[in-house]
Model the fold of this input.
Amino acid sequence: MSSGKKKSKKKRKTINKSKDWLMDYYKTGREFDEENRRRQQEEGVPKNRGLSNLNSFEWGCIIVIILGLIGCFIRYVLPHLG
Done:
């Protein structure tokens, strides 16, 4: 019979270095972008609107979305045309 005490299992510390690296890269990029925008506002540089004001992370997201749409078009539309 059991003595009523539960054995505590040691929790393994999960190491996800790629997640840590990506989050650090993301946070550093955001801090750099915020600092640049703050500096531009202090200098009185007019704020541009549109695609020319996007940071590198946002450009990367747009590129990934466009490549995904092209891939979907090639995968699903082109075979039905021929």
Q: What stands out?
A: DSSP finds two helices and no strands in the chain. The chain has two domains: 16-47, 52-82. Residues 16-47 form one domain.
